[in-house]
Amino acid sequence: MTRLGETHNIVHVLEAQDHNAGVDGDSFHAGRVHSFDILLSFGELTGDAVLKVFSGATAGTKTTAETFRYRVSDSELKTTNGDTYAAWSTSSALTLTAASYEDFLLQVSMDSDELTDGQPWVTVELGSEASEIFVAIIAVARPRFEANDPLTLID
Fold it and tell me: Which domains can be identified in the chain, with CATH numbers?
């Protein structure tokens, strides 16, 4: 039986903790994969924050705010329908309001060929608009070449 970790890259982008005054996740190299999904699991969210997905030529470089597809869980996590999702929408600067995202899971999805040419590195930014944001971020990517131990996406 093939396991998820044998067919996909699983990248820890941002550790689960209370982040204040804005935070960037660790960058990953999306040029080495066909597509990726970024999963944001929210706990506390006070005020609004703005989510952007940047591409850049190197890790940590935020050159272009990319347009991404996203959808949010239909219900709060660990409740009925907390594992089903609303319809896809698009944004390049998604405002995360507490009423809509606190205790919900947000799925962001892109194909690597949608990134700006010459900018394969992806960095997730959560703006400093919120006074409190407790979140964990994981990326799951479909590599160009499957292997039991896929090539790393981080340097």
Answer: 9-143 (2.60.120)
